[in-house]
Amino acid sequence: MELEQVVVDVASALLAVDSCGVPFKRFRTGVGPYGEPQLLRAVARYLNTLPLYGGAAKTKRTPDLLIPNHWALEFKIARPFGDNEKEAEDWSVNMLHPYAGNVSLLGDCLKLQQLHEAGRKAVIVVGYEHTPPRISLSPLLRAFEVVAERVMDIELGPRVEVVRAGLCHPVHQQLVVAAWEVLPAAARTYPRGKA
Fold first, then answer.
1. pTM
2. H/E element, 41
3. Which strand (E) or helix (H) includes residue 32?
4. Among 59, 65, 72, 109, which is 20 to 30 Å from 52 by CA?
């Protein structure tokens, strides 16, 4: 099972949540406002309807989503704007805080490196933008890669990314799912320069 397939299937799961018409709490209808735990439970339920996953995908504390013997996955949500149409404060911190033991995507990479689950490990960002983006997620995704690889010496596989437009929420109009495999340090095959 390749990461590209997992990313496509996660995007399909998010589209299914978006089209179900059930709002999260008191927010407007659409997948964008869902919290991470609620969103991942819905993703796991969807994946378990697909033969490839054999009903085995499950949410956990660590990793966020486990596909036994295939993938240990950690997720973060990136929303530059809130449900109220106002720019969110500190929305990018969950990706870029460069310290072990915190809840950032960089911290998740370090956590995955220490995890002893069978299978491969990856981090996934679920992001929401306007169509066209008023604040693009692209610089944030690139910043994550630079800090992970050049500052923290975390070996990442190539980015796998899908974009799906046409979401029903008036603010979270398109979905970006970006993922990187977190490779063991011994997997490095080229010298690393400094930023």
1. 0.90
2. helix 36-47
3. none
4. 109
